[in-house]
Amino acid sequence: MKHMGSLGFTIIITTMQCTSAPFLSLSRTLTPAAPSTLHSHSHSSFSFPPSRKISCMDIAGVDSDGREFSSTDEMWNEHAGDPNKKSQWYRHGVTYWEGVDASVDGVLGGFANVNEPDITCSEAFLKVLLSERFEADNRQQQPLVALDCGSGIGRVTKNLLIRYFNEVDLLEPVSHFLEAARETLAPGYQINSDIHKAVNFYCVPLQDFTPETGRYDVIWVQWCIGHLTDDDFVSFFNRAKAGLKPGGFFVLKENAARSGFVLDNEDRSVTRSDSYFKALFSRCGLHLYKSKDQKGFPEGLFAVKMYALTTDVPKKVHRTRSKSKANKPRIIK
């Protein structure tokens, strides 16, 4: 679901603020929390050498009641350590969002004012990625297809994806959100609906979904991956790789904790830190092509990061000095 923050209350945990986390096995959430230490810069490609992989096990965190966990293993064993606990984890998350209004304000947790800066920043990131990854001539000849994971009411598809892709499929486990998206994205409601259209509406949880092989140029995952356990996070991306066309990529846009993780006990989601995400990317065999920090959100919300992830190793750009500069005598001071 594309949600933002479940609630607007604030809990003080040592020096960290938090509220509900954002997502669901498919929710687009955002949520008040620790002030960000991240800056609004774009970062270039990065690959994870096997010998330097980061481990998630030693990452400590807290929950929304102030309880501390010494590791992710401790937290996940308690909340999803056996099939029954895991089933309850996912059922609780979906149940929470089933009680939320199918509106922009509802899916954004009462923060409808972040919709515009969210779309603006995402669009700037997407335009750069499309220009770098796909040649303009090919984009004109070959239809572009995207998958909107955690689509919610279709907010991101309507305001962004459908303007850049010829076909968009929506994936969302909460039925009344998906029905709202279907109505909003009906052919008669969209400009150029003959060449830019929403095609498939899948009411399936992210952890259970397997995409059609080779269908997508971009798989967009926003404010929903926090509802997945670490193992299901890895399993999802491993399955989803097969859904990408050659040269295709993932965009993951999520809340980022300042360090460790923050567990939201109300909607059953985990806000992970940048290092936690990168450890999971390594487990998935994904490469960080580019990243960017969200700008323009009100203070008091979690930082939000965008990651472009590829299955191929990013090409390194070798910068060399020109001969004129290389051979120029240096002045000794």
Automatic annotation (TrEMBL):
Residues in the signal sequence: 1-20
Q: Name one GO biological process term.
A: methylation
Q: Which reaction does it catalyse?
A: N-terminal L-alanyl-L-prolyl-L-lysyl-[protein] + 3 S-adenosyl-L-methionine = N-terminal N,N,N-trimethyl-L-alanyl-L-prolyl-L-lysyl-[protein] + 3 S-adenosyl-L-homocysteine + 3 H(+); N-terminal L-seryl-L-prolyl-L-lysyl-[protein] + 3 S-adenosyl-L-methionine = N-terminal N,N,N-trimethyl-L-seryl-L-prolyl-L-lysyl-[protein] + 3 S-adenosyl-L-homocysteine + 3 H(+); N-terminal L-prolyl-L-prolyl-L-lysyl-[protein] + 2 S-adenosyl-L-methionine = N-terminal N,N-dimethyl-L-prolyl-L-prolyl-L-lysyl-[protein] + 2 S-adenosyl-L-homocysteine + 2 H(+)
EC number(s) of the enzyme?
2.1.1.244
Q: What is the lineage of its organism?
A: Eukaryota, Viridiplantae, Streptophyta, Embryophyta, Tracheophyta
Q: In its UniProt entry, what is this protein called?
A: Alpha N-terminal protein methyltransferase 1
Q: Which PANTHER family match?
A: AD-003 - RELATED, ALPHA N-TERMINAL PROTEIN METHYLTRANSFERASE 1
Q: Which GO terms describe its cellular component?
A: cytoplasm
Organism listed in the record: Crotalaria pallida
| Top-level lineage group | Eukaryota
What is its biological role?
A: Alpha-N-methyltransferase that methylates the N-terminus of target proteins containing the N-terminal motif [Ala/Pro/Ser]-Pro-Lys when the initiator Met is cleaved. Specifically catalyzes mono-, di- or tri-methylation of exposed alpha-amino group of Ala or Ser residue in the [Ala/Ser]-Pro-Lys motif and mono- or di-methylation of Pro in the Pro-Pro-Lys motif.
